[in-house]
């Protein structure tokens, strides 16, 4: 690998570690600072941190790979995500920021649920913490798979070494600097990702014998199995809903909605929302461009690409000088590490606050909780690395499973707990368990691939609907036991 690539990557790694040490000095004195940055994030940092921690390696690997393989029809995933994110910022963000502070200054989602429904506090904290740790181990694994693919494809190294190298760098700044380090690195990484997704499609469009959109369209129209249409002859309504349903997942992603809890004030949420949605629109459009235009370039050039999820890596190596290639690889690492660090921190927060403090040491000091959180970051990361050890793993597949698990378990629960005063603690427990179990069963029986002899149904759809139904049915059938607290005025 050329020297210029390594120079760019070394600068990037040094910057991330530098931010970690800065955050360590500024915001790790207490558990609230380590886990939530003291609730003092500026709107721009909160916005890009939410976006970067959301988009992960699937934005530069999984989504372009899906578009590369099948065509424009896969772009419905991006549209569903954009709509879901916008509604999440409008409905959940301001309410969660206000209510988590008012209900006992909750630092984690399980703690907020326990404070909101004190009659079932212990059960909610236990069940939600277990779901968070289990699904985040899978979700984190998807990021490590992306790191392993980058290391093996771009550098010719070992896939396993790439996994552990990616994890090691993330652990370094996450363990040291906590939530503030994660958010500040996310901010920088989000800018890098967006810039890369602007540069690459623009260059690929005219690369080689490319002549703009017209020639790219002519090339792609002759590719067997590839479509330039938003709808295909074999596309069913269920298939379309399965793509759009990705947007439902936003309401239940702990590593995203925890950013809402950390914004400086409720009044700054709309500013953060506008920044976040602008960033997301640009980044999704760029990822779609990488997949579509990348396929046109590969077809024109006669290149064989075995793994569609490595199209970003191929284009970076083929079309750019060494220093820019290094920057593009840094963007890919940024997408991976921003999400992995966020997921590890949320998992460790739940283990420290919702297990250790609840069952081991109720009077634990802030210093003890910070240290337990740091140890938990390392432990969850090691488990995720083991899950990611199979080099045949698909980034988008792992993300899809974990995304559905969180969306179904926590999505209806968060929306209704923030907006419906009639909801009860038993209803919350019922929705949490129903959503998680439905997703696990759906995946186990392969119904996301084929259901009742027909096309598969993405597991988040039945999980979300059954979870919402369980919350409403059980809440209406049970009596209030102190959980009905007045919600903030609109």
How would you describe what is shown here?
One of its GO terms (molecular function) is proline:sodium symporter activity. It is a multi-pass membrane protein. Helices cover 74% and strands 1% of the residues. It contains 18 helices and 2 strands. It has helices spanning 3-26, 31-36, 43-55, 58-70, 76-102, 109-116, 121-155, 159-205, 213-221, 237-244, 254-262, 269-301, 311-319, 322-360, 366-387, 395-419, 425-444, 460-477; strands at residues 450-451, 454-455. The chain has a two-stranded antiparallel sheet with strand order 1-2. Helix 5 crosses helix 16 (395-419) and helix 9 packs across helix 12 (269-301).
Unreliable spans are: none
Shape: globular
CATH arch. level architecture: Up-down Bundle
Secondary-structure class: mainly alpha
Mean pLDDT: 84
Tell me the Rg in angstroms.
22 Å
Percent in strands: under 5%
Q: Count of DSSP E strands?
A: 2
The end-to-end distance, rounded to whole angstroms, is: 56 Å
Tags for this model:
single chain, 490 residues, mainly alpha, Sodium/glucose cotransporter, 2 strands, 74% helix
List the helices and strands and how they pair.
Layout: H1 3-26, H2 31-36, H3 43-55, H4 58-70, H5 76-102, H6 109-116, H7 121-155, H8 159-205, H9 213-221, H10 237-244, H11 254-262, H12 269-301, H13 311-319, H14 322-360, H15 366-387, H16 395-419, H17 425-444, E1 450-451, E2 454-455, H18 460-477
Antiparallel strand pairs: 1-2
Main location: membrane
Family: Belongs to the sodium:solute symporter (SSF) (TC 2.A.21) family.
Catalytic activity: L-proline(in) + Na(+)(in) = L-proline(out) + Na(+)(out)
């Amino acid at each position: 690998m050329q020297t210029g690539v390594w120079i760019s990557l070394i600068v990037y790694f040094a910057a991330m570690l530098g931010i970690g040490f800065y955050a360590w000095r500024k915001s790790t004195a207490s558990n609230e600072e380590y886990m939530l940055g003291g609730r003092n994030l500026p709107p721009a940092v909160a916005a890009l941190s939410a976006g970067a921690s959301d988009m992960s390696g699937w934005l530069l690997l999984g989504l372009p790979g899906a578009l590369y393989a099948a065509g424009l029809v896969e772009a419905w995933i991006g549209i569903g995500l954009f709509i879901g994110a916008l509604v999440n910022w409008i409905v959940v963000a301001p309410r969660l920021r206000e209510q988590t502070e008012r209900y006992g200054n909750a630092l984690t989602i399980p703690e907020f649920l326990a404070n909101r429904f004190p009659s079932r506090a212990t059960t909610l904290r236990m069940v939600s913490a277990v779901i968070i740790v289990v699904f985040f181990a899978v979700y984190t694994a998807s990021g490590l798979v992306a790191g392993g693919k980058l290391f093996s494809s771009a550098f010719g190294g070992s896939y396993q070494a790439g996994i552990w190298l990616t994890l090691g760098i993330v652990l370094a700044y996450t363990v040291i600097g906590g939530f503030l380090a994660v958010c500040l690195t996310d901010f920088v990484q989000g800018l890098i990702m967006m810039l890369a997704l602007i540069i690459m499609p623009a260059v690929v469009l005219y690369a080689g014998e490319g002549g703009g959109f017209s020639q790219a369209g002519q090339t792609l129209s002759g590719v067997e199995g590839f479509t330039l249409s938003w709808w295909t002859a074999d596309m069913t309504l269920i298939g379309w809903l399965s793509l759009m349903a990705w947007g439902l997942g936003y309401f239940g992603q702990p590593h995203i909605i925890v950013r809402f809890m950390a914004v400086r004030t409720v009044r700054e949420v709309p500013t953060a929302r506008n920044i976040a949605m602008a960033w997301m629109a640009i980044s999704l459009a760029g990822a779609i461009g990488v997949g579509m235009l990348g396929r046109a370039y590969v077809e024109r050039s006669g290149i064989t690409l075995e793994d569609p999820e490595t199209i970003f890596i191929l284009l970076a190596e083929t079309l750019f000088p060494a220093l820019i290639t290094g920057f593009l690889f840094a963007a890919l690492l940024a997408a991976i590490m921003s999400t992995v660090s966020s997921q590890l921190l949320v998992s460790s927060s739940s283990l420290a606050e919702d297990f250790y403090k609840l069952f081991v040491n109720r009077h634990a000091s802030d210093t003890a909780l910070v240290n337990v959180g740091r140890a938990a970051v390392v432990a969850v990361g090691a488990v995720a690395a083991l899950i990611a050890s199979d080099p045949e793993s698909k980034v988008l597949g792992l993300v899809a499973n974990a995304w559905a698990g969180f969306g179904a378990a926590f999505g209806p629960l968060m929306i209704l707990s923030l907006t419906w005063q009639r909801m009860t603690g038993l209803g919350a427990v019922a929705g949490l368990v129903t959503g998680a179990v439905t997703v696990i069963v759906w995946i186990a029986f392969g119904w996301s691939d084929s259901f009742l002899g027909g096309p598969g149904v993405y597991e988040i759809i039945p999980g979300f609907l059954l979870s919402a139904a369980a919350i409403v049915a059980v809440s209406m059938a049970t009596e209030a036991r102190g959980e009905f607290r007045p919600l903030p005025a609109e």
